């Protein structure tokens, strides 16, 4: 299992936190992506992830999963440790609500700023 990411970016950090909470950081291979150099926009990368975003999870069978919430949900399901997504319908709904709030309210604003303020990324 591989995680394609870049250190210091907020979305990949969310996935690293999920892995740490599950005690699974040493059970995946981290593959650094040169976002500043445009590696995520290469044809090789876009073959795996047409959205050209990090983080991306690549399973041993070649299946690729993008988007933090989807990756975190997968991590929660395959690794032992505390539940990250909730154990009851009410917990799962509240966690999904908070994830959407974070995505729509904070992460999108940070991402928009970053893309416009960082040469070579947009």
Automatic annotation (TrEMBL):
GO terms for molecular function: glutathione transferase activity; maleylacetoacetate isomerase activity. It comes from the Bacteria. Residues 1-83 form the GST N-terminal domain. Keywords: Transferase. One of its GO terms (biological process) is glutathione metabolic process. The keyword Zinc does not apply. It holds the Pfam family GST_N. InterPro entries: Glutathione_S-Trfase, Glutathione_S-Trfase_N, Gtt2-like_N, Thioredoxin-like_sf. This is Glutathione S-transferase.
């Amino acid at each position: 299992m591989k995680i394609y990411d870049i250190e210091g970016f907020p979305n990949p950090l969310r996935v690293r936190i999920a892995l740490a909470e599950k005690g699974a950081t040493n059970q995946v291979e981290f593959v650094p992506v040169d976002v500043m150099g445009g590696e995520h926009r290469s044809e090789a990368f876009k073959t795996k992830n047409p959205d050209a975003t990090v983080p991306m999870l690549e399973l041993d069978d070649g299946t690729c999963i993008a988007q933090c919430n989807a990756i975190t949900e997968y991590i929660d399901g395959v690794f032992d440790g505390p539940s990250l997504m909730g154990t009851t319908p009410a917990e799962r709904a509240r966690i999904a609500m908070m994830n959407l709030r974070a995505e729509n309210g904070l992460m999108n604003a940070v991402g928009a700023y970053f893309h416009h303020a960082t040469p070579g990324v947009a």
